[in-house]
Amino acid sequence: MAKLFKEIVKLEKTVPGGQTLGCLKDGKKVFVxxxxxxxxxxxxxxxxxxxxxxxxVIKVLAPSSQRVEPRDACYLATSxxxxxxxxxENKLKNELVTEAFGQEKIELNLPPIKTDGKDFGYRNKMExxxxxxxxxxxxxxxxxxxxxxxxxxxxxSSIEHPEIFSEATRVVDExxxxxxxxxxxxxLIVRCDQQSNVSSALFENGxxxxxxxxxxxxxxxxxxxxxxxxxxxxxxxxYEMALIEMQKFIxxxxxxxxxxxxxxxxxxxxxxxxxxxxSNKFAAAEAEENIRKLQLTRAKMICKSAEQSLEYITxxxxxxxxxxxxxxxxxxxxxxxxxxPARIIYLSxxxxxxxxxxxxxxxxxxxxxxxxFNFFPRTPHIESLIVLEKYHNAHRCKN
Length: 399
Hints:
Layout: E1 5-14, E2 20-23, E3 29-33, E4 40-48, E5 52-62, H1 75-78, H2 86-102, E6 125-133, E7 138-144, E8 151-153, H3 162-177, E9 185-192, E10 198-204, E11 215-219, E12 222-226, H4 236-247, E13 255-259, H5 267-270, E14 275-277, H6 281-294, E15 300-302, E16 317-321, H7 330-339, E17 343-348, H8 351-361, E18 365-373, E19 383-390
Parallel strand pairs: 3-5, 13-14, 13-16, 14-15, 16-17
Antiparallel strand pairs: 1-2, 1-4, 2-3, 4-5, 6-7, 6-9, 7-8, 9-10, 11-12, 17-19, 18-19
Helix pairs in contact: 2-8
């Protein structure tokens, strides 16, 4: 680990990763957590490379008018934009999506980002570390300090549903009552559904993962079962907003193919009988069960990677894409360009890789809709929706 040192810096702009850019005395760029553009701050530098450094704010010397007091002492570990005014955060996220596409020479005219206005208490899943205080001889809930492997103990956290933090506190109280040691455990995962039912599990070092009790939630009126330890959306009210937006662009006369489908919560809600493609066997099994429970007998689950399922990308389909942060594999992009699906509905948690992918698709398709969603308030994460429609004659769109 790099030796920590401090320096006073004037911050310039927020960059797509969510940090704020500044410049050290030696001319090296520094990427900063906990600061806003225009502020003069004292930093603790925790990482130095040949061309850049990373750090976090320990003292604000000249604050921005957009700065607000963070709700949690642990905010840098969980939600580093707690110091941003919420209205400013929403505006900034739209600007960052526009900038990501601008880097690919694509001009987006984004409407205001969509949010339900709830900036705390929205997360339905949390993973906590455990930390042992030798002086008090007890375990505390903890998070890793941003940019380091060090842990910071916590006594409050506000971005998750209150029931989640209450359950985590109960588990830790039980551990302390038994005189347990934190080093025995890797983490504590807690998840709740929209009815406040909670499922939790301690993950022990060197032991198989425990089986967690499945939860159920309704999404656009359809009930889904999912493992609390698996992939499922963190902020369901905002997710439903995105699904309603996506559904507007599903042509009911065409088949729908949902790549990177997870447990099927996109395809099974916005289309009647989709083909789902998912490589994770646990998520695919849950998708199969959801198809059965929803009695969607014509829906089909393909448990293969996207690259192994290219034959399902054809011309006259609605193609739904919700890839991981890395974006689309080159083989998927090539297949899309070859077959020219009628409509592409691309939801992404990383506008930078989404913009890269969309730029490649503009030889055969044009953007007909764009919308950003604030799924993860008080963090730099952004969900971006792009809808593309194929040209009748392939040619590059002029943006």
